[in-house]
Please model this.
Amino acid sequence: MGKPEALPTRTKAQRNGLPKAPTGIKGLDEITLGGLPRGRPTLVCGGPGCGKTLFGLEFLLRGARDFGEPGVFMAFEETQQDLSQNVRSLGFDLDRMIAENRISVDYVHVDRSEIEETGEYDLEGLFLRLGLAIDTVGAKRVVLDTLESLFSGFTNEALLRSELRRLFRWLKEKGVTAVITGERGEGQLTRQGLEEYVSDCVILLDHRVREQVSTRRLRVVKYRGSTHGTNEHPFLIDENGIHVLPLTSLGLDHSVSTERISSGIPRLDSMLGGEGYYRGSSILISGTAGTGKTSIAASFADAGCRRGERCLYFAFEESPQQILRNMRSIGVDLNPWLKRGLLRLHASRPTLHGIEMHLALIHKIVNDFDPQVVVIDPISNLATAGTESEAESMMLRLIDHLKARQVTALFTNLTAGGDAWEHTDIGVSSLIDTWILLRDIELAGERNRGLYVLKSRGMKHSNQIREFLITAEGIRLEDVYAGPEGVLTGSMRAAQEDRERAAALARAQETERKQRDLARRRAALEAQIAALRAEFQEVEDETKILAEENRASEQQLEASRSAAAMRRGADKPALIKGKRK
Amino acid sequence: MSTRKSEGQEEKWELRLYTAGQTPKSLAAVKNLRKVCEEHLAGRYEIEIVDLLKNPRLAKDHQIVAIPTLVRKLPVPIRKIIGDLSDTERALVGLQLKQLR
Model:
């Protein structure tokens, strides 16, 4: 971040018309869209130990080193020696910069016990010193840290106030970009009401401790002539100085990729439309304890490294060594990737910082390492470091940030046993593209793991539950038994499958038997039909013979009757014949 | 008024007054200083007037913030008094020419 990103924001600021001086403080220039108002004083206020002096020093030293703007540091609290030591750890050689006339440090010592006030005076000495220092190095930047020390050194407050007013006017006339630090006061921003002199830009630093966990926050209270977010931005101070987490809403205009990447588990890829996750998407693996979330996460990291991508793994539950050992036991060896620098494991206790600090840290490491794949295992633990609403908004911002960077992010989420399955502790489900649920299936004294895809945006995914086996060769997904007996897994599934096989065999045998029976019955039936037909034929033949015999005897009778008539000499045999008809 | 003439009779006083140009405050301070010295330290004091406009580097080197500032270099310890010394009472207390009651 820092320099490369400062450029576009600076041009943006120029479009807005207000010239700005980039601070070089990571994240701050994004929040202020380019830096502090150029040629005007800015008030930085906060309680003790909130990082005011460091803010001023970074603004000044980075200005001199990175932006070619020499500066003057007027210290009321620390000597040049102290300051030099303080910034050495940040990689600045203050003494050399002073020798090169890029920085001038003036330690102003004011001690009321040494001073007796006897009538009228002014602070011309201060002006002379500042003026000389500015002219010596050709300063464009000035830091006064902290002006309020003057109030403890002098009693004539009315005079001090008028002198301060004169000082700010003078600084503006000089055209220097100034940072004035002030102690936080009760009910107002600074103890001495310095904000009434500085009307252009006020930045509030806050260091609060809640439940033994400290969080630093920065807020731009006021920035005249420029748009600015008024959100509180968490920041951290580390070996590289101040790092502000810009919580600007990134909106929903980030570009999307159609590229698909493997989850590292072939069968899971096939469940996800056959190709795996989308690049740049956010994946949530949720499940109760011991359902294999870390195994899925590690497989994904492994797959990423196999593709030659940089992968960042944040572990909030286990130490790196523990993860390496455990994953080796299931056939995922992450060690070579670590050695080749493709994988970075970053483990810390969730209770170490507040959630903002964690996220600022994640943010920073992500920006430094520039990974393609990020794993956070688990996010639910982070939530314990803050309140629920805090955690939620922070997570949203983190996911947003990773999305904007086109980082494929995998989060695991530990759900409590009693909760609904489709429940994330920190309501991030709406931002998640692919949500995989792991659940225990407890049956017959056995506990097995089930996996299903709850949702996966933009792809046709399987809606089936798979049994999820963690073997020494890695993760395997098996079809579960889903039938009239319910969903069965593990040995129950095996037993059920055996039973099913036996039942199928029995059914086959039964069918065969029935078929045989049918054939036999058909044969019997056909025999019967043949017999009946034969019987019928017999009757028919008999009837025919009978009819023949009848006709024959009829003819014979007729013949004998006509013969008798002839014998009697009867007439008209035809009449008799017709009468019979 | 109980000055400590008895103890500091032989002590040599070295005073330095820092000013910034010929402002009314500076002029008043010089006038008031001379008056106090004549009254209390007659014959055993030295006054050096430093105009910081002419030599601004000395402001940093000598840790001067307020103008005018009077520094008592001797006798030790070094004392700093700011203002135009119009408040004579406080000036005397500041120079330890008079005990604070």
The CA atoms of residues 27 and 84 of chain B lie 8 Å apart. The beta strands of chain B are 13-19, 45-51, 69-74, 79-82.
